[in-house]
Amino acid sequence: MKYSGGFVPPSMSVQPIPMPRSAGDGDDGQRQGIIKQDSCFSDKSIRAGFIRKMFTLVTIMLGVVTGMVALAMLHRPTNYFVKSSLSLYGASL
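Above: the chain's sequence. Below: its structure in token form.
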């Protein structure tokens, strides 16, 4: 191909992918920049851990809110206090 302008596209160099080493080679594969196949820090495991933590936090927060609402509804003195305080009653709506 002949280019008439001043732009020359970069050449497409292909770098070989290093083969994973076996455990018996004596050299740690991570020192050479090779990620081991049994690494526990894969994208799936990180995402699954993050989702598990987020669902745990949301469950705890919903439990706390449910407890506060149950206290305000079922405990007579707390129910009376919330109804008599106009700002708390307005905030609960």
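The chain has a mean pLDDT of 77.
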